[in-house]
Amino acid sequence: MQEEIDALQMQGTWSLVPCPQQKNIVGSKWVYKIKRHENGSVARYKARLVAQGFSQELGLDFSKTFSPVVRHTTVRLILSLAAMHKWSLGQLNVKNAFLHGELEEEVFMRQPQGSNAKLVQTVIDDLGAVFEMKDMGRLTYFLGLQVSYNSTGDIFVHQHKYAKDLLQKAGLSNCRACPTPCKPHNQVLMSEGEPLHDPTFYRSIVGALQYLTFTRPDLSYAVNTVCQCMTAPTEIHFHLSDVDWTGDLNTRRSTTGFVLLLGHNPISWQSKKQGSASRNSTEAEYRALANTAADLAWIRQVLPDLKVCLPLPPTIICDNLSTLALSSNPVFHSRIKHLDIDFHFVRERVQRNDLIL
């Protein structure tokens, strides 16, 4: 706790002032967490002092906020390039990185419990932009991902510890292993079964399963299925473990699924219910093709920043001949006129040789 206080004061995070009148004063709270190594042993005890922002009002105390985070695809892209080029991976930690942001709003917070500072300090200007870095050595564990290497330089990324912790949380540590995440052609009805007395636990487990798909594309469809029951989960939903045309009996919407490879390494994948019902399999496949092309276009924008140049246009493999014909045929078909945006999005990229079907 003292280390946290020292870091906050060193960065000039706050200035002590008398309590102003007619101002919203937010509270403060200490949050504690045990940081562990990949084998589960204790790495260190961590304390963070946070402001209780839930007492603030939108438009009065703050405007719209967001926190940029790295996409899973970007992380897998870096790891894939490292494996292909036999690069060594290291990791650095910026101490108290969140303190280096600029806060434009004026926020008043009560002093943390136990503070004995009574003097009013002046605001310190022109703080040096010095980052205290810690070299954490070879990359072996970060963001819940375990990274291991073999003698040839190949990289294996997994979430063994995360999965074991999740099983323990769900009370399934002694459960039997299953060959597949869910039964083939499994149909889920939203209103089937008795409603759960406390749906919070179900939502917590499903949310944790979503992060497990970081390294397990084979779980994506099963996790996508149980995610659709978050609003009103039942006992049946809790025990549930390529494009599927009209596979959802509740809405008759299709499911888009794709996997993007860089070399032999999967770097992006998705299993997601489409936004509207499709009248035939060609229409469903074309919507899936447009989503895949959009994700591929984003990855192509990231690669130049990493100094990576693709020698040939990427190839998308699709098993629907009608969809392939629509993508290359210059004639606009009346039967897909309601797919105008997706139709032109894919065709433009094919004509510009940005991708090959």
Automatic annotation (TrEMBL):
Species this chain originates from: Prunus dulcis
Domain Reverse transcriptase Ty1/copia-type as annotated: residue spans: 13-117
Superkingdom of origin: Eukaryota
The protein's name: Reverse transcriptase Ty1/copia-type domain-containing protein
Lineage: Eukaryota, Viridiplantae, Streptophyta, Embryophyta, Tracheophyta
